[in-house]
Design goal:
2 domains, Rna Polymerase Sigma Factor, Chain: A, elongated, Arc Repressor Mutant, subunit A, mainly alpha
């Protein structure tokens, strides 16, 4: 069997059966695309090499444990592993920007910061997604005030007028929304900023 002409799924099967050369063909076939993706996020050749190697260590471990079931979609699967390792790199390296907590929940400083550079955009997108999912778990009255305040940038006076409650009630709902959001973050063990 000429390995170089085989589809990714066949090469994966061959590697799982013990043919070490099959993995070499897969790496040769996709290394440029995977490395370029990683480098485009970390912008450092040495770090990109480390993440690239970690990606294939994880690929090998997963394949050897028989946990691969991507139905022939090898490259997207490896890219997802690389993507997750890039996120881990930024989280572990404490490379996220620091923000002062001025009383309001500090994660919203991350959401409103427009100066993030390309490599941090990945983390920002993940954080936004995590927060958006958590906001949906809040009680409706708290979710409404928080959404109007944070995402629509309305003042508490405007929120009071729109929702038909007093400013104090709107402030109270915001306070409880932030308290509950913190509890949800702890409950789901979500890492927002290091």
């Amino acid at each position: 069997m000429v390995l170089r002409k085989q589809e990714d799924s066949v090469l994966v099967s061959e590697y799982i059966k013990g043919n070490e050369q099959a993995l070499g063909v897969l790496i040769d076939r996709h290394n440029q695309r995977i490395f370029s993706f990683i480098f485009s996020k970390v912008l450092d050749k040495d770090i990109a090499n480390d993440v690239f190697q970690d990606t294939f260590v994880k690929v090998i471990n997963t394949l050897k444990r028989g946990r691969y079931n991507e139905e022939g979609k090898f490259l997207p699967w490896v890219m997802r592993i690389a993507h997750n390792l890039v996120i881990d790199h930024f989280r572990k390296g404490n490379r996220l920007p620091k923000f002062d907590d001025n009383g309001e929940f500090s994660i919203f400083s991350v959401l409103s910061d427009n100066s993030l550079n390309a490599e941090k955009q990945l983390i920002k997108n993940q954080v936004e997604n995590d927060v958006r999912n958590l906001v949906h778990e809040l009680p409706d009255d708290q979710k409404e005030v928080l959404t109007l305040r944070i995402y629509n940038e309305m003042s508490f006076k405007e929120i009071s007028d729109k929702t038909g409650v007093s400013i104090n009630t709107a402030l109270g709902r915001m306070r409880y929304a932030l308290i509950n959001l913190r509890k949800l973050i702890d409950k789901h063990q979500i890492v927002l900023v290091n």
